[in-house]
């Protein structure tokens, strides 16, 4: 294969590995930009942010690459080309991993005070809904999952959210036929506190006392989901701000029905907003991105909302003092009944 004596100034020769990475980077950029704009970020603001940060990413130079190509003899070109494919791919992957990290703030800060730790949607680009992995508990992982048994036949997830307190729920599901529910907390300490509270005071659903214990299968909180909870305030609850009149509870349920293992616990409308209670933090991120992708939700802000289960545990009831009435015993000396004639 012959090599031209001069390089065309209007063209650039790159390897297939480099081309694939460039195409991938372009698609990710377009996807991120689309998600940000869909979430309410102004296009002009986005252009300014991109321009201001271009200095952090200086354009690469190809002097060494081009010089090596010009010095290569025709008979050595095949060997050079086969070696170059792997070297270019390795170099590109390395360069992608050493790019500086830029930390950005969400376009819309969470409204509730405790929401400073959750979110991933339009403001931060399309977020991957990382599921908490349920698996047998190992010695080096904290316990965070409880099993609720002896539930009444008519119990619902909403009933469970009304009695769970002390910590945000990571994941929960109900097995009506088997009469039990699984509840995993974000914080292991919250699970332990609720278990102790249940043992001391009892927990009742629809007037029936239920049993609370550690589940044999514990849910594992992945680091990526933990970062989203701690960094963006992600929770299992969503709120649609200034919802349109044509959006109803049935509409929301129908739009989220296709998400596997997602349960809509409750949909409530208040002050022009729609509050959606779900059963899983990871799946709530999927639900949020799904709604953002639908035309009917365009222009509506969809945010995470604090978990009502994170409210403090109720104050424990003080044990009642039982007074025993002793008839026939004079109040002047309560020890008279213990005395006999010899003692006197």
From TrEMBL:
Residues 117-135 have a biased composition (Acidic residues). InterPro entries: Nucleotide-bd_a/b_plait_sf (IPR012677), RBD_domain_sf (IPR035979), RRM_dom (IPR000504). Residues 144-217 form the RRM domain. CDD domains: RRM1_3_MRN1 (cd12261). PROSITE patterns: RRM (PS50102). Residues 101-140 are annotated as: Disordered. It comes from the Eukaryota. Keywords: RNA-binding. This is RRM domain-containing protein.
């Amino acid at each position: 294969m012959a090599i031209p004596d001069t390089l065309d100034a209007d063209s650039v020769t790159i390897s297939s590995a480099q081309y694939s990475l460039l195409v991938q980077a372009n698609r990710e950029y377009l996807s991120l930009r689309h998600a940000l704009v869909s979430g309410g970020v102004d296009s002009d603001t986005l252009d300014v942010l991109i321009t201001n940060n271009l200095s952090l990413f200086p354009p690469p130079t190809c002097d060494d690459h081009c010089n090596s190509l010009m010095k290569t003899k025709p008979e050595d070109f095949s060997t050079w080309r086969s070696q170059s494919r792997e070297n270019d791919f390795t170099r590109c992957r390395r360069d992608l991993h050493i790019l500086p990290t830029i930390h950005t703030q969400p376009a819309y800060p969470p409204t509730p005070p405790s929401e400073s730790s959750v979110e991933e949607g339009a403001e931060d680009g399309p977020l991957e809904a990382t599921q908490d992995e349920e698996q047998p508990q190992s010695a080096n992982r904290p316990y965070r999952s409880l099993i609720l048994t002896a539930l009444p036949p008519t119990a619902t997830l909403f009933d469970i959210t009304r009695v769970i307190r002390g910590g945000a729920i990571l994941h929960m599901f109900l097995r009506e036929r088997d009469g039990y529910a699984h509840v995993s907390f974000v914080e292991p300490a919250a699970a332990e506190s609720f278990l102790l509270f249940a043992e001391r005071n009892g927990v009742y659903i629809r007037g029936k006392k239920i049993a609370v214990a550690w589940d044999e299968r514990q849910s594992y909180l992945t680091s990526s989901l933990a970062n989203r909870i701690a960094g963006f305030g992600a929770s299992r609850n969503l709120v649609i701000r200034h919802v349109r009149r044509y959006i109803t509870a049935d509409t929301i349920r129908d739009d989220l029905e296709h998400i596997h293992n997602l349960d809509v616990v409750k949909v409530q409308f208040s002050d022009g907003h729609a509050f959606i209670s779900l059963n899983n933090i990871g799946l709530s991120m999927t639900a949020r991105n799904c709604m953002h992708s639908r035309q009917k939700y365009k222009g509506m802000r969809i945010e995470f909302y604090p978990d009502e289960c994170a409210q403090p545990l109720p104050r424990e009831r003080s044990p009642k003092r039982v007074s025993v009435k002793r008839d026939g015993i004079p109040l002047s000396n309560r020890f008279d009944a213990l005395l006999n004639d010899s003692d006197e």
